[in-house]
Amino acid sequence: MRSETAQLIKLQDYKETPYVIENVSLVFKLQPEATEVISTLTLSKREGAEAGTALELDGDDLTLTSVAIDGAALAESDYEATPKKLVVHAPPADRFQLEVVTKVNPTTNTKLEGLYLSQGIYCTQCEAEGFRRITYYYDRPDVLSVFTTRIEADKASSPILLGNGNPQASGDIEGTDRHFAVWHDPHPKPAYLFALVAGDLACISEKYTTASGTPVDLNIFVEKGNEERADWSMDSLIRSMRWDEKVFGREYDLDVFNIVAVSAFNMGAMENKGLNIFNDKYILADSDTATDSDYEGIETVVAHEYFHNWTGNRITCREWFQLCLKEGLTVFRDQEFSSDERSRPVKRIADVIRLKSRQFPEDQGPLSHPVRPTEYKEINNFYTATVYDKGAELVRMIKTILGADNFRKGMDLYFERHDGDASTIEDFIKCFEDANQIDLSHFSLWYHQSGTPVVKAKGSYDEAAKTFTLDLEQINAPTPGQDQKKPFFIPIRFGLVGPNGDDLAYSSAEGAQVDGDLLCLSDNKQTVIFHGIGSRPVPSLLREFSAPVKLETGLPREDQIFLMRHDIDPFNRWQAAQTLMTELLIELTNGSEPTGKDAFIEALGHMAADENLDHAFRGFGLMLPSEQAIALEIGKDVDTDAIGNARDAFSKEIGVALYDTFKRIYDALEMPATFSPDALSAGKRALKLRCLTYIAASAGEGSAALAKAHFDAADNMTDRISALNCLVKFELAGAQEAMASFEERHNGTALAMDKWLGVAASAPSKDTIGALRTLTEHSAFSWDNPNRIYALIGGFLGGNTRGFHAADGSGYDYLADITLQLDKTNPQVASRMVKSFGTWKNMNADRRVKAEAALKRILEADQQLSTDVKEIVELCLD
Ligand code: TRP
Ligand code: ZN
C-alpha cells in the first residue's frame, strides 16, 4: 500500500478565509501543451482578521512561473509554492494585488478536471475543486468574486473563444496568427463556476426575450457537422427559461447564454455562469441515434443546468457539505419542469424508479450518508444519488407538508433573502419557517440522519364502531456512523379506498396529525383511528410516493390487486403491481410456488389493456423489478443466479399467459409516419416495446421473427435498440445478424455505438469477462472517454447482474483490475465504477469472500491510489 492518507474534512471545522478577493483578472495564453495563466487578484483583509496573516491559496498539480505583489516580484523567503499550495507568509498591506503566473498542460490532463482538451476543444471543468488545477486560488464556494477573462488562442484551430458573462472585446493579436476575446461576468461567483472554451465549433442560435422584456442571445455550440442534432436542446432550453419565469418568477440575468457540448466529460453537464458545458450525450439528438429516454434526459439536464442559474449560482453553497442545497433543490425543479411538460404521474413513477434503483441501495449499504453529510475525504465522491435524488425528495416533502402556495412563499423569501449569498441548508429551511410561521425542526432531521426508514402499516376495520384503525411504525436501522436513530417526520398521503374504488370520507381522525389526505407520522409508533367509515376500506398509503421510505403494508394479495385496479392515485396503482411482482419474484427465487400468481397475471393483463390509462403508464406497469431491486429487497445472502433465473422464468410465464393480449396491443398501436419525441408518441413506443419484450420472452413460435422484423423495420433508435436488446437478451435467432447490422449502420457515431456496447455488455454469455475484454479492443471503445466506459463497463456492472456477481468472483476481479487501471488516468471515473462494490455485503457467503478479496487487492496494490478510489474502497470494507 503506497497511498498517502487523505485528510478528513469536517463541517465543524468551517472557517472564513482571512482575505476576500474583490476581483479577478485572468489571461489565458492557450497552447496545447503549455498554457500560460496570468492571474491578478485584488485581495483585501477581511474585517477581524489579523494584519499580516498569511495568505494560503489552493493548488493542485501546479507549476508556478512567477509571483508578485503590487508589481514587485516576491523574494523567495516571502512565499512557499508547491504543486498543492501557494503561501505568502506576510502580505505587506491590508489591500493588495497579487499576480500569479502558472503553466498547465491541457493535453496530458486525463482527469478532465481543470483545463483540458477534448477532441481539439479547450474546455474547463472546475466543480468541485478543479479551478486549483488552473491557478492558485481560494478554491472554495464561499469566496465570491467578479471575474474578467481574456482568452488568447490560435485563430485557425480556435476561432471560437468563450468565457463567463458577457463578451466585452475581441480582436487579432497583431503580428501573430492568434486572436483574443475578453469576457466579463458582473455577477460575483465562486471559482467552481468559472469556465472557458476555445475551439473550432459550429453553433445554432435563437433570440429570447425575458418576461420583463430583456433580450438574450442563446447559442448552442457543437462539433462541426452536429448542428442539426442540437435543435431539441435549444427547444428544451427555451421551454425551461419560460417555465422558471412562470413557476418560480426567476428570469435570466446576462446578455448571452451559451452552451457547449464536448465529448470527453466526467459527469452530465456543468452550470458555469452563462457558459454551461455539457457532455455531448445530453445535447445531441436525432431520431436515428437517440432514444426517447435520451430526448427526455436532454430535456431534463438542459433544464437542470439552466435552473442552477438561480439555485446554485446566484445563491450558492457555503461549503461542499451544503451540496444538496443546490443539487437537491435543482433536481426537484427539473423534475417539476418535466412533470409540467409531460405526464405528472408517469414522471413521478420514473423518478421513483430511479430513486429506488440508485439511492435506496446506497442508503442501505456501507456508502450510506446523510443528504447533508458532516465529513468526507474526497468531495467528488459525494455527488451521489443521496445528495441529488433524496435531496430532491426532501424539498418535495417540504412542499407536501406546506402546500403549493406556502411552498412558493418560502421559495420567494429564499430568493429575496439569499440572492448573492453562499448559503446553508439551515438558511434554506428558515425561509420556509419564517414565510409560514411554522416550525420545521423535526422535519430537518431528514437532512442529517441517513438511512431509508421502513414504515410498517397494519389496518383493521370495526364494522360496529364504523372505525378504521391504522397501526403505524417506523423502523430506522443503524447506518455507518449513526447507531442511534430518532424518528423521522414522515408525510404520508393516503386514501381509504371503498369497495367501489372511490375514497371513503372520514368524519374525524385521532392519533396523529391528519389533514384531508395527508397524515404525518412523527413517532416510532402511532395508532390512527378514523371515525365514520361506512364499509371496510383498503388503505392506499404513501400516494405519489410522498416520502422516501420503504413501506410494508402486509396487505393480502387480493387487496393489492384491488388497488392495482381501482386506486384513484395512479402512482399507487403502479406501486401495487410492483409490490406484488416483488413478492412473487422473491418467492420464486426461493423456489416456492406463490399463491395468487395467476390472479396477478390476469390483473396485469387488464392494466396493460386499459385504454383509460396513459400508454407510458401501462408500459411502466408491465415492468418487472430489476434483478438488483429484487436483490436489495432480499437484503442478505443473495444468490444473483437464482434471482436472474427466477425473473427470466417469470417473464416467460407472463409472456406465455398474456401472449394474445400483448400481441393485440402490439398490432393495434399505430405509430406516426415521422418520428416525434413527444411524450404521447414516446409512451406508445414504450408500451409497444414492452409488449414486444414479453412476446420475445415467451419464446413462442414466431417471437424471434417478430423481434427481428421489428429491428429491421425500425426507423428510429428507440425501436432499433429495444428490438436488438430483445434478440440478444433472450438469445433469439437473428441476434448476431442484428448486432452486425447495427454496427455497420452506426459505426463512427460514438453515441449510437455506446448503446451497442451496452447491449453487448449485458448479453448472457458463458465467458462474460472474456467477451468484455474483446469488446474493449473494439474500435468503438476507448479508455480515454468516460461515455465509452460508462457504456461498456457501466453496462456490465449495472445491466449484467449475473455476470458481475458471478459466483466464481470473475466479475469482482475484473472490476478490481479496471479500477486500478482507470485510477491512473481518471480517478473520478474509477471511483464511480468501484462504487458497484457497494452492495457486496448483501451477497451470499461465497460471493462475499470473493468481493472482499477483490476490494483488498485494490487497497494493497503497488500503486498510488487516488483519494477518490481509496475512500470508497475503505468505506466498503469498513
Ligand atoms: N454541478 C453539476 C450538476 O449540475 C455536476 C457536475 C458536473 C460535477 N461536473 C462535475 C460534479 C464534475 C463534480 C465533478 O449536477
Ligand atoms: Zn446540478
Characterize the structure shown:
The chain is of the alpha+beta class and 878 residues long. Among the domains are: 192 residues, Immunoglobulin-like; 133 residues, Neutral Protease, domain 2; 93 residues, Aminopeptidase N, middle-beta domain (Immunoglobulin-like, Sandwich); 139 residues, Zincin-like fold. The chain is 40% helix and 22% strand. The site of zinc ion has 4 residues, from helix 3. Its EC number is 3.4.11.2. This is Aminopeptidase N. Keywords: Aminopeptidase, Hydrolase, Metal-binding, Metalloprotease, Protease, Zinc.
What is the CATH homology-level superfamily of the domain at 9-200? tricorn interacting facor f3 domain
Helix and strand composition category: alpha+beta
CATH architectural group of the domain at 9-200 = Sandwich
Bound molecule kinds, no repeats: tryptophan, zinc ion
- How many strand units? 33
Quick one: overall form?
Answer: globular
The value of Rg in angstroms is 28 Å
Report the major sheet. 8 strands, mixed
User: Might you state the CATH topology name of the domain at 9-200?
Assistant: Immunoglobulin-like
Poorly predicted tracts of residues: none
| Name of the CATH class of the domain at 9-200 | Mainly Beta
User: What is the topology, as strand order, of the major beta sheet?
Assistant: 6-5-9-3-2-12-15-14
Distance between the termini: 17 Å
Number of helices in the DSSP assignment: 27
> What is the arithmetic mean of pLDDT?
98
